[in-house]
Amino acid sequence: MDRDVKVILNGKEVFGYRGQKILELCAENGIEIPTLCYDPHLTLHGGCSLCLVEVKGARNLVRACAMPINNGMEIQTMTDRVYGARQLALQLLLSDHVGDCRPPCQLACPARGDVKGYVNYAAEGEYRASLEALHDNITLPASIGRICPAPCEEKCRRNFVDEEPVSIREIKRFIGDWGIASGDLGNIPEIKENGKKVAIVGGGPAGVSAAYYLRRMGYAVTLFDKEPALGGMMRYGIPDYRLPQPILQKEIDWILAHGIETRLDTALGRDVTLDELRKSYDSVLLAMGCWKSMPMRVPGEDLKGVLGGINFLYEVNNGRKVDLGSKVAVIGGGNTAMDAARCALRYGAGKVYVVYRRTREEMPAEKMEIDEAMEEGVEFIFLAAPVAVEGNGKVERIVCEKMELGEPDASGRRRPVPTGEQFTLEVDTVIAAIGQGADLTPLPGEMHDGRKVSSDKHFATPMEGVFVCGDLNTGPDIAVAAIGEGHWAAESINHFIQEGVPHRPFECDVVRDDLGPEDFLDEEKQPQEHPVHCPGDVRLSRPFEEYNLGLSEEQVLRDGSRCMKCGCADVHECKLRKFGTDYEADPETFPKGEYSRPQRTVEANKYYLRNMDKCISCGVCVRACSQQAIYSAIDFQHRGMKTLIAPALDRGIEDSTCVFCGQCVQLCPTGALTENSVHGISRPSRSRVVKTICSYCGVGCELNIHVDELTGKIWNVTTDYDSATSMNNGRCCVKGRFAWSFVHSEDRLRKPLIKEKGVFREASWDEALGLVAKKFTGFRDSSGPDSLAFFTSARCTNEENYLLQRFAREVMGTNNVDHCAHL
Amino acid sequence: MTNDYESIRHADVALVIGSNTTENHPVIGSWLKEQQKNGKTSLIVCDPRRIELDDFADIKVRHRSGSDVALLNGLMNIIISEGLYESEFVEKNVEKFDELKNLVAEYTPGKVSAITGVPEQTLKEAARTYAKGPNSAIFYTMGITQHKYGTNNVKTVANLALLCGMLGRPGTGVNPLRGQNNVQGACDMGCLPALLPGYLNIAKSTEQAVEKVKKLWNAKLPTAPGRSIVKIIEGAASGEIKGLFIMGENPMVSDPDTNHVRHALENTEFLVVQDIFLTETAQLADVVFPATCWAEKDGTFTNTCRAVQRIRKAVNAPGEARPDWEIILDLAKACGAKWNYSSPADVMEEISRFVPQYGGVSYDRLDQGPLMWPCPDKDHPGTPNLYTTGFPRGKATFVPCEWNEPHEWPDAEYPFLATTGRSLYHYHTGTMTRRTPSAEFIKSLYIEVNPEDAAAMGLGEGDDVKVTSRRGSVVGEARITDRVPPKMVFVPFHFGEQPANALTASVWDISTETPAYKINAVKVEKA
Questions:
Q1: N or C end of chain A: smaller count of CB under 10 Å?
Q2: pLDDT beyond 50 at A679
Q3: Which domains does chain A have, with CATH numbers?
Q4: Which residue of B has its CA nearest to A687?
């Protein structure tokens, strides 16, 4: 065809042929037009309205998939109007796309740990893969696996079945410990340097994580910390009985081994200034945390013997002596208060009170922490607030006021209201663990309001190139939140350096929040596995030794298998989600009309899953079935809002004319159709494709084998419609597409076998080969070459067949060689 | 196949005989259906069963099992008598036309209709449509070959194509669809008792063969005739074969007369089996070598249209399993051979020197795409369609064949005809597919029975039905369907625990020794 049609495409003159559609011309010129219903191998449908572009002179935006080009046509593919129209189209599609993209556990995790991935890899015994999946989002799994309050477990839908979640945190810890015990936390990839430098101030979980993810992207990273060791609050704020420092250190060392420079004992404002960093680095990330204990704002606070909670823990974690006397009052109800109270016991205090102004129900500390503090003998005084600290030169007593609970406050917890009734505790030390704040003194005034650093949602501060993350950005939060902050800030910095503007990754997730126990009645109950904890008295006898011994391997395998694999199997490949992310389409823009409608079936056949809740009626599957498979097993059924895709006459797929070639599944742009045979989890996050030829019939279809890079196992087999080397032009059948799991079958032969007295035993290759060589040469020499015979194989390769006939003829001297050509 | 896949797009007429294409070669089936649906190709389907392709057929020829030669001779009779054949082509390219003409003259539409059960009008339509073309292609598989007179069937197919000049152009050809991924390659590689790689006949071209082996292997070629599979099994049973090496085959399930095969293998003094599973055959072995499967190794397969294609290693083998080529190499070395290959690419390099048709094949070229042999040198683009410029021997020859009654025919005692074959969902002896989701979809043996017969027996869908031949019997779940005609049952052979080959006879085509699986006189009863 002559390319004689001149088009101005995004201001550039290009030539196409008559009748060519705008979308095809764009593809030829390297411009991707988003579409969900167009496929070059199928007829046009035009239903998704995503491929809209602007044509000069046209009143409305036009569909690029359907509009042919004209001479002189001027096309703009990415104006604000186009962007807005596509975003709107996506929001509308998402409003009727029901399900979970990512599982609730992952969305509950501030770092978006791939829970389903690492838990299921662990349950399959694929510990290496599990650890790698962890490292994709969670930098310090062995450490986090000890201290995390596990918001993921709270959202785990296993709660609907067993009233107990999957032991996600303990599994994480097991995997982290497995890596540490095996002495190898994972391969350190060769890093492709991009020539840019980033300074990170603060080596806590946020800073270390940011360093890791920036380094993986190719940045030269320098990590500054005021302390002599990295770890921040995880090192200096958490006692060893909960997180032994060697564990944390090993995990940090592995991250540093990626080639991260450290400058320890170097404080911002004291040893180095922000201006110096800005001059020497392409970007600066501030992650210094919240190290200031909040004051109680009561008289007597300045007396000797009043300590800040975090300051006390800092001393403890430095192994320094602190004279607490015999009676200690800890003020506050968070984890810092629990740690302080329990450390006070370990530092010799005979009596430790925790004074908290609300009740146990409202305590922000983790339940386990509270229980264990109680077991160890800490006395809790609820509904009490300090009003004064008294003493002669040093603390002698603390005066408290009794409280009662009033109306809920902004945090949703019931507000403590003073009653006027007071009481006094005789104590030697008061530890105020009521909150922490940021130390803003090293920062210029323009960056903060005196209480917190100014930043936008992309972690950018008012000072160009300077970013902030972690507790310094959010105020005190849990460690895994800091890890997430570090990760997303790293992404934003990358966007800033590469594209000129800060930008944190947009997350497009459809969420199913209407489920409850009644939706899981078919699920078999299986109780949660719990780790072994030493009892309180044993704990106190070895005060700083770890007492949670974790789950055993058997427990991990059992508990991991409780995961119900919520979330969509197609999450890494779904085009709707990809475009939703690209165009920042909020799935909640339009109200969800109805949740799963009864007529929208979820049907699992032996080969694939059909979830019509996720169907966007793009009709790709219908066209694939009639135009590629030539079966027409499915079509649009019913009318209007009730339209769905199904076999005629309300039959199930297995009772239809479907022959399970899987071409519909392969082309489905969403998770409405997904392969059933996917190994364990969903599609893996990292996968490679190997092109090969099918091993079934003689047609010789080219297949794409998809290998999970984490496990080295096949997870899918598809075809490539556009492959230049494919003789089948992308077509295939049920065997090529779905009948491959025998490859990883448990009963594959793994060792040579020798039969002795009618029973097989395993043998070494040397022994087995030696025996066959001896027998065959023996027969050849004693009974003549023609006492031997060889069946080659129509299943094996040319090379193998060639060698076996050569062996028969040359080495054994017989033409007794044949194969089952006729069967 | 004389022609490639692209050729299918150019066929005005496709005559499919003895091939349940959509089940056994589904992708080719999809092309045939697509061509027909789009009005580009007229489809003539000749099969005793109402196979799925029959639903798309413009002309449906439901001839009786075992009547293929009569049917094809009948078509030629009509074509010659109506003057529809390509006389110029025949004169120029084919010998012995008179012999053909004389023989098929006996196969009048009336006589053929009586033998085949096909109405005369249908025979005429089929003959005229095929002859008219302009480009007509024939596709066949085991429905043609797995008969006692399978060779005659094949020759007769070729006669028809030659008669109408339907060779050497896109859209024409005689196209056997090969059942296994590399059955073509195994033949190309000389894995046949009488032929060296590249089809060099040891008996007929002894001097050339000896010379080649001396030059390329520096070895002395044995010239004593070798045994075929059938003769090997016989020799094993009689004790003449003492050592037997079976690479990746499962004759316990795939070969006729299972009981006979078991006896032979048990009687073999030393049996070595190389496979990926402990198959029914491997269980009888003295030594089992664990091999890699297709996803775990590099190499080449040659498909049904002679295209050599690369397979590539995707994953590691389990345990100590090793690729077959490595095992053979080490075994040869252990037997004192001085072989020196470091990869399958090295082996292909040698193949390209041994096999003239593969002269231009190399891994570098295969990375760019398939090569269809003959591809004699590195600059040759390969040969999608054979005989475009005539025949290698100068002229082709008609080999007219008389129709013979099959070896076995339903009688009073065994009134049904059983035919064996494959299901779309399983493959061969099931060692692979029965470890995949297909094992859940089709768990065990099913037997297709016509509704008329089922009603007569009081047999319901899913009831157990027992099929018994003179050799043995199997029990399977009844599938009641008019895909099989009355008095015929279809028995797939994938299920080792109920092996279809318990029914089949050790009866072979004389020249190819292909077993006559398609015809078995049986009785059918509710189990």
A1: N
A2: no
A3: 5-78 (3.10.20.740), 108-290+441-499 (3.50.50.60), 311-437 (3.50.50.60), 575-675 (3.30.70.20), 687-744 (2.20.25.90), 763-818 (no CATH)
A4: B314
State how far the Cα of A561 lies from the Cα of A126, in Å rounded to an integer: 13
Contacts of B329 in chain A (CB under 8 A): 803
Residue-wise DSSP of A536-586? HHHHHHSTTS--B----HHHHHHHHTT----S-TTTTT-HHHHHHHHTT--
Give buried/exposed letters for B430-457 (b at 16+ CB in 10 A, else e). Answer: bbbbbbbbbbebbeebbbbbbeebbeee
Query: For residues B204 and B210, is the Cβ–Cβ distance under 8 A?
Result: no
**Cα–Cα distance list, A175 to A132, A154, A162, A184 (Å):** 10, 21, 24, 12
How many angstroms away from the CA of B211 is the closest CA of chain A? 13
> Does A766 have pLDDT greater than 50?
yes
Distance CA A403, CA A421 (A): 8
Q: Count A/B contacts: CB-CB distance under 8 Å.
A: 448
pLDDT digits (tens, 9 = 90+) for A567-596: 998 898 899 999 999 999 999 988 876 555
Q: Do A795 and B249 touch (CB under 8 A)?
A: yes
Rounded Cα distance between A153 and A108, Å, is 8
CA atoms within 13 A on the CB side of A321: 2
The domain at B6-177 falls in which architecture?
A: 3-Layer(aba) Sandwich (3.40)
Mutation for B interface: A609, A653, A657, A693, most B CBs within 10 A: A693
**Nearest CB partner across the interface for A705, out of B307, B314, B325:** B314
**A664 with A634: CB under 8 angstroms?**
yes
Q: Rounded to whole angstroms, what are the CA distances from A617 to A195, A474, A670?
A: 47, 42, 10
Q: Nearest by CB to A629, which of B30, B224, B322? A: B30
Cα separation, A435 vs A477, whole angstroms: 11
Q: Å from B98 to nearest chain A CA?
A: 32
Beta bridge partners of B489: B418, B449
Return all residues near A379 (Cβ < 8 A) that are at least 6 apart.
A351, A352, A353, A354
C-alpha A807: how far from chain center: 52
Amino acid residing at B212 = K
For the stretch B2-46, pLDDT in tens is 999 999 999 999 999 999 999 999 999 999 999 999 999 999 999
Which residues, 6+ apart, have CB-to-CB distance to B146 below 8 Å? A822, B514, B515, B516, B517, B518
Structure tokens at B159: 């006669």
Would the pLDDT of A170 be above 70?
Answer: yes
Q: What is the ipTM of this complex?
A: 0.95
- Tell me the mean pLDDT in the region A372-390: 94
The torsion defined by the Cα of A467, A572, A192 and A287, in degrees rounded to 10, comes to 20
DSSP string, A195-236: S-EEEEE--SHHHHHHHHHHHHTT-EEEEE-SSSSS-THHHH
Question: Do the bridges between strand A220-224 and strand A261-263 make them parallel or antiparallel, or are there none, so unpaired?
Answer: parallel
Q: Is the pLDDT at B80 greater than 90, yes or no?
A: yes
Region A762-766: what's the mean pLDDT? Answer: 97
Q: Could you give the CA distance from residue A54 to residue A75 in angstroms, rounded to a whole number?
A: 6
pLDDT at position A593 is 62
- Pair of tokens at residue A449: 């309001």
Residue from B301, B343, B428 whose CB has the most chain A CBs within 10 Å, to mutate: B301
Residue A28 tokens read as 């030829």
CA distance to partner chain B, nearest, from residue A202 (Å): 43
Mean pLDDT of A429-435: 94
The predicted model scores a pTM of 0.91
Q: Which of A630, A795, A798 sits opposite B302 (nearest CB)?
A: A798
Residues in chain A within 8 Å Cβ distance of B294:
692-693, 695
Please name the residues in contact with A351: beta carbons below 8 A apart, sequence gap of 6 or more.
A326, A327, A328, A379
